[in-house]
């Protein structure tokens, strides 16, 4: 299932981050999921509960944030409102998606070994999928 492979990709990235920082466990993982990413958040949570302990980093909590969809004209770059016709009001060209299909790893809360300042938030290289530059 699609959501299972997303969870495995997230856990893989979290494991890399934890290893780089020498973390002993991970307390929470925050992902941002675009409206157009095609992810069922309920299924993602179910998959998370099944797989989260498999990373050997405790049982991190999953937090899910949303991201709305944004469109622009593929020719002139004029922003185009979501929900209306996906066509540029200025030049008539079709719209392209600017954002909203991404899956981002926003934040990983790591538990570092003693002596430490407590949980550390790490902003990992964020894009799991769908990089718009
Ligand atoms: Zn245009």
Considering the chains and any ligands shown, give keywords for the structure.
single chain; 133 residues; alpha+beta; hypothetical protein PF0899 fold; 5-stranded mixed beta sheet; 3-stranded antiparallel beta sheet; 2 helices; binds zinc ion
Content of β-strand: 25-35%
Global mean pLDDT: 88
CATH class identity = Alpha Beta
Percent helix: 10-25%
- Continuous helix count: 2
Radius of gyration: 18 Å
State the major sheet: 5 strands, mixed
Distinct ligand kinds: zinc ion
Q: Structural class of the secondary structure composition?
A: alpha+beta
Shape annotation: elongated
Number of strands: 8
CATH topology descriptor: hypothetical protein PF0899 fold
Number of domains: 1
Q: Span between N and C termini?
A: 29 Å
Poorly predicted tracts of residues: none
CATH architecture: 2-Layer Sandwich
Order of helices and strands: HEHEEEEEEE
Describe the structure.
By secondary structure, the protein is of the alpha+beta class. It has one domain: hypothetical protein PF0899 fold. Helices cover 23% and strands 32% of the residues. The chain has helices at 2-21, 41-51, and strands at 25-34, 61-67, 70-73, 79-80, 95-99, 103-111, 120-122, 127-129. Strand 6 (103-111) and strand 7 (120-122) form a beta hairpin. The structure holds zinc ion (ZN). Zinc ion (ZN) is lined by residues 73, 75-76, 78, 88, 90-91, 93.
């Amino acid at each position: 299932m699609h959501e299972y492979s997303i969870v495995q990709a997230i856990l893989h990235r979290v494991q890399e981050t934890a290893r780089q920082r020498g973390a002993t466990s991970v307390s929470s993982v925050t992902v941002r999921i675009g409206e157009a990413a095609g992810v069922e958040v309920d299924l993602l949570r179910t998959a998370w509960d099944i797989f989260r302990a498999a990373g050997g980093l405790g049982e991190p909590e999953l937090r899910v944030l949303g991201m709305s969809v944004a469109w622009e004209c593929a020719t002139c770059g004029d922003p185009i409102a979501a929900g209306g016709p996906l066509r540029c009001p200025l030049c008539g060209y079709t719209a392209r998606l600017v954002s909203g299909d991404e899956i981002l790893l926003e934040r990983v809360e790591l538990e570092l070994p003693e002596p430490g300042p407590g949980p550390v938030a790490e902003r990992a290289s964020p894009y799991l999928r769908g990089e718009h530059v």
